[in-house]
Design goal:
The chain is an alpha/beta fold. It has 23 helices and 19 strands. The strands form four sheets. The protein has a six-stranded parallel beta sheet with strand order 3-2-4-5-7-6, sandwiched between helices. The longest helix is centred in the middle third of the chain and has 18 residues, at 334-351. The chain is globular, with a radius of gyration of 24 Å.
Length: 527
């Protein structure tokens, strides 16, 4: 049956497993909306395209499936570029579908016109392409989903001219074949096994790309007697009972001394990017084994390193099988790991006095299966170091692009993805301003979503940085509203605990409440 292409695209997305689309309709992209309900897809109406993008990001991180967003020509694309940049830096699968003008070179002054919308979007995503026919649109959607399935997950943008969206066309062809992830080469794993079985101090660094490989990794660590660190994205891959796990403590400076103890470093699913440790060099001296599905990451390896283009789960499962008869001769001691962890915590305490105690109180009150979305704020900077997770893929932070305003809408996307399961946001007072309007979406959907808002009355991280640079602090204080009254005006619940015990009670109640709860926390909670 022929329908306008916009409607056919919604049916095509449904056929490829899309259940939810985030976005905002407009006169330019309304043809996308013709087929949404008919295809059986749920649409979440954001209050701003930036919110739609972050919701799609949060949904993707929670499910592992691509988050999909519909936006209009011009400003809609510009507004979602920040979430696209965040998804690109953090390897999140996201598909942004937008309309575009039919002609821009010979016709000026049109509604939503840009000089080159496609190129603008391409600066913050894996690729941005224009589909000038139905067949091209179908081919590009198929390309995006094929790459989501078997390559490093990165955001894509497809734009379709308005007249092409409106034109009637046949349905997209169904996909019968299933693409498989890249496996692991037996010879590569065997070479790594030979190196590791002779090691006295093997040390693993576990990145977000290894989140699906938690169980074989835990087996490998135990069989080798290896120590391990995780990046922030890899938090929870190692078990809470692993006494040789340093946690997500690569950033504290004392980690350099620990890294230099290793005689073999194994880096699984990590770029070892600047935002993983915030210094010029990681600091290790041992040769490394890099396991990654991205050739660009492997190309940066040292001359003495081994590189394996492999899926982390397949690689670690094969290594675990090879280690069945291995008797570890590790020199790592739980006491040295424990001492280093304590030094790391003290370093965070010096940077952000008192915040670790708030994080401890929150952690004790939050259900184990909670998925947490944090923002660029000092309470999150502390929490992602001192808060150990019992499972991977449950703490999401805007690490690379580092945008403010991420946590609230991303947590909404995560809550939509996991109905009935606990989700929480952690955001600062200034970051909350960026996307506070999306609180209305959480109210509209009736999400039981605690939003912990940390208000220290200023851009404290910037103020501290200015002071360290001997710059008189400037433009770091903004007038805040009464956040609790603001939340209630949206129809949300609001709490302002004055003690850690009250904070724990409020958190527990928020997970049971009908609708979101803003939990307003200031440094005075420690006094």
């Amino acid at each position: 049956m022929q329908r306008p292409l916009g409607a056919q695209i919604s049916h095509m997305l449904k056929d490829r497993g899309v259940e939810v689309i985030f976005g905002i309709p407009g006169v330019h992209n309304q043809e996308f909306y013709r087929g949404i309900e008919e295809a059986g897809i749920t649409h979440i109406l954001a209050r701003h395209e930036q919110g739609a993008g972050f919701m799609a990001d949060g949904y993707a991180r929670a499910t592992g499936k691509p988050g999909v967003a519909y936006v209009i020509t011009g400003p809609g694309v510009c507004n979602i570029m920040t979430p696209m940049g965040q998804a690109y830096s953090d390897s999140v699968p996201m598909l942004v579908m937008s309309s575009c003008l039919d002609e821009t070179a010979a016709k000026k002054g049109q509604l939503h016109q840009m000089k080159d919308q496609r190129v603008a979007a391409e600066t913050v995503c894996d690729w941005s392409e224009e589909a000038r026919s139905a067949d091209a649109a179908y081919a590009l959607v198929n390309r995006a989903f094929a790459e989501f399935a078997c390559q490093r997950p990165l955001p894509k943008h497809i734009q379709v001219p308005i007249s092409v969206l409106e034109a009637h066309t046949d349905a997209a062809p169904r996909v019968e074949h299933v693409l498989r992830e890249i496996g692991a080469d037996e010879a590569d794993v065997a070479a790594a096994f030979e190196k590791l079985k002779r090691a006295e101090r093997p040390l693993f660094i576990l990145g977000g790309g290894a989140a699906k490989a938690s169980w074989p990794i835990r087996s490998v660590l135990k069989k080798l007697g290896a120590a391990s660190y995780s990046t922030y994205a890899g938090c929870g891959i190692a078990g809470l009972d692993d006494r040789l796990h340093y946690g997500a403590m690569l950033e504290p400076e004392n980690s350099v001394a620990e890294l230099r103890k290793a005689d073999v470093l194994v880096c699984i699913g990590t770029d070892l990017a600047e935002v993983d440790y915030y210094r010029a060099e990681l600091g290790h001296v041992a040769p490394a084994i890099h396991v990654n599905i991205d050739p660009a990451v492997l190309a940066r390896a040292g001359a003495k390193d081994m590189t394996h283009l492999a899926d982390a789960n397949a690689w670690c499962a094969r290594l675990s099988d090879m280690l069945i008869e291995h008797i570890p001769s590790t020199a790592w001691l739980p006491t040295e790991v424990e001492a280093a962890r304590e030094l790391g915590r003290l370093a965070m305490e010096r940077l952000y006095p008192g915040i670790a105690a708030i994080c401890d109180a929150l952690r004790a009150a939050v259900p184990l299966d909670t998925m947490i979305y944090s923002d660029m704020t000092q309470i999150a900077y502390t929490a992602k170091v001192v808060w150990d997770m019992d499972r991977p893929g449950h703490w999401h932070h805007p690490c690379g692009f580092g945008t403010l305003g991420y946590a609230t809408p991303a947590a909404i996307g995560g809550a939509v993805a996991r109905p009935g399961k606990p989700t929480m946001a952690m955001i600062g007072d200034y970051g909350f301003h960026y996307t506070m309007q999306e609180l209305g979406v959480a109210v509209e959907l009736g999400l039981s979503l605690p939003i912990v808002l940390w208000d220290n009355g200023k851009l404290k991280e910037i103020e501290d940085s200015m002071v360290r640079a001997q710059i008189a602090p400037n433009a770091v204080v903004a007038r805040n509203p009464d956040f609790c009254c603001l939340a209630e005006a949206f129809g949300a619940h609001a709490k302002a605990p004055t003690s850690l015990a009250a904070l724990q009670d409020d958190i527990r109640m928020a997970f049971e409440a009908q609708g979101p709860t803003l939990i307003y926390v200031t440094p005075n909670i420690l006094t």
